[in-house]
Amino acid sequence: MRSLLHFIHTYHFIILFILIEFLSIALVIQYNDYQRAAFLNSSNRLAGGVYKKFSTVNNYLSLKEKNQELLNALAVSKNHSFNAFKQNAIGVADVMDSVYVQQYQFIPANIINNSVQKQNNYLTLNIGKKQGVDKGMAVVAPNGVVGVVKDVSANFASVISLLNQNLRISAMLKESGYFGSINWDGTNYRYITFSDLPNHITIHRGDTVITSGYSAMFPKGELVGVVDTVDQSQGGEFIQVRVKLAVDFKKVKNVMVVKNLFQSEQLMLEESVHD
User: Fold this and answer.
1) What value does the mean pLDDT of the chain take?
2) List of domains in the chain
3) In the prediction, which pLDDT does 44 show?
């Protein structure tokens, strides 16, 4: 209390000046229509600006939440889609006696780190072993292929991006069924090379390229992109196709990790055949 009284006594002229200034401004605003209107207009502008900023932030958070809800709903939808199931024959005498069992599960995730400017690019996801993610699992966005899980910790996963020269994925032309492999040449992040296609087939600009399903990672039918140009200048038995990727890697934020429930069994069998 003594300190407060000392402060008031020391600065009483300044405090009195400030009080008189506020009183003068209040009297001017109260008894002059123009100044009152100007003051209210400025106050409204200031308040409006604050509310606008708050609304922008609120809308952003709301949109982010809605996007996550849509991603979760899409994952649930894909978990029940036809491509997530395989036909499982259970009859011996009657081969028509069969049921469909789920082969793939889709786990929603968010990208928290990403690169596109390197020769070999990677992504980081905000989910890991605790959410059921493991090495070798495919990663897809709502609109196409993204990459393959490389390493996993308890709560995070690193992904080999499709924009990585060390990644090669089996793909096929949706219309004709001819298959080959896709691999990035390290130049333009919007395009990838589709190779090992026989030179006698007809390919048109705009043809759809999808995953072939000839691996233990990707289900058949995940979108890769569309044919941009066809290169037949090299000769030989095969041609190369330039494909425009469905996924824009500078914009992608939400993905799904694809868990093949029969992956271990399939890989074990394939390894025994190669041995």
Assistant:
1) 79
2) 85-89+97-262 (2.40.10.340)
3) 43
